Structures are given as structure tokens and as C-alpha cells.
């Protein structure tokens, strides 16, 4: 089933009608299977390959939940934007056309939660442990709780590691970015980052990125290595620069009406299986990126560049204005709370 293309230009009423029609078509074609007798069917949609940390965590969740429920709760996973893509998955969840998503944290800014874009700030985190100080602490819990304002329930976070820059030339200094069309997620922070480097941000769904790179619609992009490898971007990008400039993580979310329709015991069963699957995803995120990097080196199609400390520092200085410029959008109190949480590592 080819990924649907959602037009953000449609009026809201037409978008809702389009999504309902899409869900009905999927059901008629068998893509959305009926729940088993006296059981529950969870439809879990995501936009990346099964071999990525997200894909592997989703599959682990399916295995754990189906085993522990004795098959009474079944999980159908739709990877690689087979069911919904970047532009329509949130609306599909809110309409009940799918039950679970694992969107990147950037996507919550687009639906009215710009505070989630603090995770997009470039060169903010030195290591994944810094991120988890946020996601597993009070600040992360407050962020998830806010999703109830849009009828969503945030069930947890997990990592895909740090992003690298790719193009058809090395990207080692700000001057290397000038004039490039760089694919970005729908995040004002990431777009501002690219503009600060002299590039032109182009917002595209993840599922369309490789095709856009191959056709020259965009010149480059940013990704963890596991996404770069599993989407075969190495076939259309000659250079990968290991900038580690930004973090890419996800939150698993469900529809509030669906979640509250479940029994308390089923919510507990699903929640425990999900927590274990997310811990598994976090554990393998670095491993999967390392494996992908080794595979890239072996393939030999893409030149891989490791930046010096000085080169990374120059890139970080170039994007420093992004932190000040986007502070008001993200929220000054959120920014202060973030800085205070990060300071605990230095003083602890």
C-alpha cells in the first residue's frame, strides 16, 4: 500500500472527511483488521523502517503484549508510512483511525505544543544522558501531560540518537551549507538552524525525502545514521558529515478516548509492555547507529567525515542565535526549566 499524501492546504473540514475516507478505504481493503473476538486490536503506525530503533522497539512491544495477554490483545504495526505519513498521522490518531503513533518530538510543535521543540535546539545536548535527564524527569512528564489538551495521551519517550548532516559535498563549516536546499521536519527551530548556516530549509515528509534527494528537489538533509542507511540515502548522497548537532527522539502517543475505553488492567498491561519496549529501544539506539555506520563504510558509496572539535565548535557558534530567537516561541519558563535540569549534571 503506497503512503498517502496529505495536503495541508485542504480546509479543516475537508481534511477530516479525507482522513475518515482513508480509514474506511483501509478497513475495506483489509489494511485495518477487525479486532479478535472478545479481544483488542491495536493499530500502531510509524514512518521509519523496521530495522531502525523505532521499528525494533515497536516490534518488541508487539511481542511482549501479545505474549502477556495470551493473544487477547493483538498489535498490527504499519512501518515506513504504509498507513499514514508525517502530514496526516496526528490527525488520524485524533480521529481514531489509528491507535498508537511514535512521532518525532518535532511534530508536536505543529499541533500547538511548541515547547516540545526545545529538543530540536542545535548543540544543546552533549550526550544522550542529558536528554534522559529531561525526558525521564519532571520536565518530561509535564510535557507529556500537556498533550491532553489535544485529546492525546503521552505514554513515554525513546531515542534515536544524534543527527548527522548529509549532502553531495562535505559539510564541515558554515560556508559549506550556503545555498543548499536542506530537507527538514516541520519544526521552526530546525528551519532556523538551517537558515543560520546559510542553507534553505525545505519541509518534506520523511517518506518523501529519499525521492527528493534523488531528483534534486533538495540537496541534503539531517538524520541519525540508522535512518540514513535504512532509507538508502547513501545511494543518493555522496557525503555524510558526523556533526552530531542535534537529537532525534520520539514520544509514543495514543487517542485519549481510546485509552479511557480500555479497562484499568489492560491499560496497565499495555503500559508495562510499552515501558519495557522503550527501554529496549533506548538500549539499542546507539548499537543500531553504530551498525549502520559500519554498513555505510563497507558499502563505500558515501564519504564519511568526522569533524574535529574545532569544526564542531564553529558550527555551534553559527547556530547560537537560534537559541535566543526561538526562546519566546518555545516559552521562556520552559527554557529556564531546561537549563536548570541540565545544570544538575554539572553540579551533581
Automatic annotation (TrEMBL):
GO cellular component, one term: outer membrane-bounded periplasmic space
One GO term of the biological process aspect: C4-dicarboxylate transport
Keywords (A to Z) from UniProt: Signal, Transport
Pfam families in alphabetical order: DctP (PF03480)
Keyword hit for Signal: yes
PROSITE patterns membership: TAT
Record-stated family: Belongs to the bacterial solute-binding protein 7 family.
Classification via PANTHER family: C4-DICARBOXYLATE-BINDING PROTEIN DCTB, PTHR33376
This protein's name: TRAP dicarboxylate transporter, DctP subunit
Species this protein is from: Albidiferax ferrireducens (strain ATCC BAA-621 / DSM 15236 / T118)
